[in-house]
Prior knowledge:
single chain, mainly alpha
Amino acid sequence: MEEKLIKSALEIALEKSKNIKISEKELERENFREIGKKIAGQYLTQKNYDLVSILKSYKGDSKKYILESIESVFLSNIVLPKNNEAKKDIRKVLEGIVSIKEDKQIVSYICGEIEQFLESYIKTVEEYYKQLKKEFQRQFETARKEMENQFGIKVKIDVENNPEFQKKFREIVSQIDSEYRNVLDEYKQRLNLIPNLS
């Protein structure tokens, strides 16, 4: 009688992976992509990191794969800023993009447009916040006066910490984000089309 063995998930996975062949070229490409991610991370986190000098030590396909990876990291870090500090981080990303692209004049121009666009985004969010706050203050003013008359004491209502105010503001920001994100994605696609250094 033949004994049937139950295979573990690991054994099954190992058997299936025997049939998968990864070329030497693909392994090399993946290795250089990882190097590119590390270089991008160092550039973004370290002050005075000399990206251009680092890139000069790579040539040919290795440089191509590293630049593709760096570009991918940089583009993923161009996001809608939540505050002015985040805007500074994005400025560093944009400077990095300029340094890895061939046509620096066009890239600088697009990056300038992106900075203006992000400034517009922040101003739009701030403006909607102010408008919503005024609207809620008007709504709560009547209630505040009634409470003061009823209890005979001064009442202060903190509109900004009101759950309804916060919910409504999140909804507005979500709508603004959706519209602005589409345009930002178009800018990123334009940058992506410009060749990297060779």
